[in-house]
Amino acid sequence: xxxxxxxxxxxxxxxxxxxxxxxxxxxxxxxxxxxxxxxxxxxxxxxxxxxxxxxxxxxxxxxxxxxxxxxxxxxxxxxxxxxxxxxxxxxxxxxxxxxxxxxxxxxxxxxxxxxxxxxxxxxxxxxxxxxxxxxxxxxxxxxxxxxxxxxxxxxxxxxxxxxxxxxxxxxxxxxxxxxxxxxxxxxxxxxxxxxxxxxxxxxxxxxxxxxxxxxxxxxxxxxxxxxxxxxxxxxxxxxxxxxxxxxxxxxxxxxxxxxxxxxxxxxxxxxxxxxxxxxxxxxxxxxxxxxx
DNA sequence: CTCGTGGCCTGATCGC
DNA sequence: TGCGATCAGGCCACGA
Length: 292
What we know:
The structure is a single chain. Strands 2-3-4-8-9 form a five-stranded antiparallel sheet. It has a four-stranded antiparallel sheet with strand order 1-6-7-5, covered by helices on one side. A two-stranded antiparallel sheet has the order 10-11. The longest helix is centred in the C-terminal third of the chain and has 25 residues, at 213-237. Helix 1 packs across helix 6 and helix 5 packs across helix 6. Helix content is 24%, strand content 24%. Strand 3 and strand 4 (71-76) form a beta hairpin. It is built from six helices and eleven strands. The protein has helices spanning 4-18, 44-48, 161-168, 175-180, 190-199, 213-237; strands spanning 22-28, 57-59, 62-66, 71-76, 81-87, 96-104, 108-116, 122-131, 141-144, 274-278, 281-285. The chain is of the alpha+beta class. It binds a DNA duplex through loops.
């Protein structure tokens, strides 16, 4: 459920208290939350203990926190993950999977709780690698090896619009599948895919190769618009002290035009929004505005 | 190589 | 009241 805007809100909220914090101790309550951690690189707890966080980064839905050891703590929220900032002596949260005990130079001792009901998310310690990605001539990027295959997100200044349009227009598969392909464009999940397709008046099952270059650029513009609006709403709604992204209450649901709107009139033409199952997930669209 | 499907996972909800 | 089935969808492994 957390897509780019929600993940960015978490990243930005953690940044001021995480940067400069030393990780004193780590408790893993459920090893399933370490499924993306490669144990051959070493013990998760051992690799983190005693290290200091340098920065807070994000690409698409991956977040990572480079450490003074040269590695990075990688976090993916999956479907239901949260990173909750708590007082050091706070009561444990429900579904607490991993807890970091940290000390920050000015904020003092804190607990950082990785909470994840459905365990689609994860934490890992991974090595950082350098890569060339994005528009030609863009500066080298440093990224965890496990996120190196993830494309830049469309809000990244180095995102290559031309390359995206070319790649989309070579695909025989539906445009929604392409929007959800994190190797092509990152940060978009089911909700904002449906929203962007509605705004661009595109049916999600329309093959990429059947979309004109102009329409592809329009879609990209709508993707950016949807993500930017959600980011602006999310950025104002969270508590600076406690970061809390929750699929139910934290979602920017009051401004949705397609997702979850089945049975309601289309805000543009009044036709009834439909919901169908596509790619094993719900797809919401206006049958009049969005023709296949 | 591209494309499409199944599996992981828990809790809320629904029908009987 | 209880119980099984269904649904939600992030990513990845795998097979065609």
